[in-house]
Design a protein that fits this description.
extended, single chain, mainly alpha, about 110 residues, 4 helices
């Protein structure tokens, strides 16, 4: 259980789970089985109900768009089968092997004592 809590609290990848929690595959398998069986939902519902009855739950939800990911086919870029409007020209893009390395794109960071 400590491995499950650690994973959820830190957001690390399963493979990066510290060894003190046992093999990551074992912890993942247990997490997956509990999720499919509804163990977490069953445990959370009474706690939420009590907190809601006491007025301790604010049901306002805010979503940070920096972490909301769109599916690859959601963008109409005109690349790889995507569709674009006929009156808008598609923007040609260089193949990846022709892109300049990051050293040429990003400015060098300044190191000033201070």
């Amino acid at each position: 259980m400590n491995g499950l809590v650690y994973k959820v609290r830190t957001g690390i990848r399963w493979r990066d789970l510290p060894e003190r929690y046992g093999p990551w595959k074992t912890v993942y398998t247990r997490f997956r089985r509990y999720a499919l069986e509804g163990v977490f939902t069953h445990a959370l519902q009474p706690v939420q109900a009590r907190a809601d009855a006491a007025g301790d739950v604010d049901w306002l939800v805010q979503i940070d768009s920096a972490v909301v990911r769109a599916h690859q086919h959601a963008a109409a870029t005109g690349r790889k089968g995507g569709h674009h409007r006929r009156d808008e020209p598609s923007i040609p893009r260089r193949p990846d092997h022709q892109d300049p390395p990051f050293k040429q794109i990003l400015p060098r960071a300044r190191t000033t004592p201070g």
